[in-house]
Amino acid sequence: xxxxxxxxxxxxxxxxxxxxxxxxxxxxxxxxxxxxxxxxxxxxxxxxxxxxxxxxxxxxxxxxxxxxxxxxxxxxxxxxxxxxxxxxxxxxxxxxxxxxxxxxxxxxxxxxxxxxxxxxxxxxxxxxxxxxxxxxxxxxxxxxxxxxxxxxxxxxxxxxxxxxxxxxxxxxxxxxxxxxxxxxxxxxxxxxxxxxxx
Amino acid sequence: xxxxxxxxxxxxxxxxxxxxxxxxxxxxxxxxxxxxxxxxxxxxxxxxxxxxxxxxxxxxxxxxxxxxxxxxxxxxxxxxxxxxxxxxxxxxxxxxxxxxxxxxxxxxxxxxxxxxxxxxxxxxxxxxxxxxxxxxxxxxxxxxxxxxxxxxxxxxxxxxxxxxxxxxxxxxxxxxxxxxxxxxxxxxxxxxxxxxxx
Lengths: 198, 198
Fold this sequence. Notes:
Two copies of one chain form a homodimer.
Chain A: H1 3-19, H2 26-33, H3 37-44, H4 47-66, H5 75-85, H6 91-106, H7 114-137, H8 147-166, H9 172-193
Helix pairs in contact in A: 1-2, 1-4, 1-6, 4-6, 5-7, 6-8, 7-8, 8-9
């Protein structure tokens, strides 16, 4: 992807985070990105093309801010870090999170978004599940838990809490506290439940 | 509230579930409800007035389908029933759930919706928390758990799973299975964790 295409998609994420997917007009995007509308049509064909590309771009962005930073940590610490990183009040995380939530909400009405959304969601679940398995190998998570179910629940909870955070139904601190305890519940349950009597 | 007002709000929920909050136009709503636009303005003042009233109406609707049916059951069974009832493929539940999700998503951009959304969310959390406490009194849930946190996590998970269901990122059966296990994890953890040695 060219630098110019990335520039357009970065602007698209900003516009979606500000006005929603349904507020994304090509003229507005062109102004925000500082390019012509013709260039946008040239690279992304049409408005649905821009929205789909923005969805994929958000996914790459999220991977970049959640990726390299903790590569050397133990799997359990990375897992907690990755999930909690989604609930963070820095400009880019907040913008990405709002845009991602808005794309999810739009996919209820815009059926073209469903397949890329599902692919992206599955990829996220698989990443989290892989980390849980690695943490199991490292002895930091009990081997009896259903790793796929734990990953799906934790990512769905992140989405539910993010929406409450962005609508001010919950404070960011409370959302992080609830998520931290959820990780503990998901990953440490059998360790405690099957602890041999002292 | 008059029967005519209810008729208008029922139509509003249908339109929101079909086209989103941002697709709700007064002309369209009038056609759907079979009333004049003047009558809608008379009862609800303006479009934001309709949207806020629809949000409250959805809340009442949800209470009606989750309320009376299980009044005689034990608190634990009611609690599980109430939460799982939100993930059900019947016309009214599905429509209510889509409209409720769409109102949540809209409140990110429409700040006027935040306060009624927060009130409604808090009321739901409090209802679930009360049932958890009653289940504790009945000996069906350990007394050591943080009831407020468990309620908040379970309702946020219902919202996260509902959105995945409506966007076809997850099947309804899988969503129900994940929620059932989450309830078990939240409510039975300390019971197992502190079980005395045999």
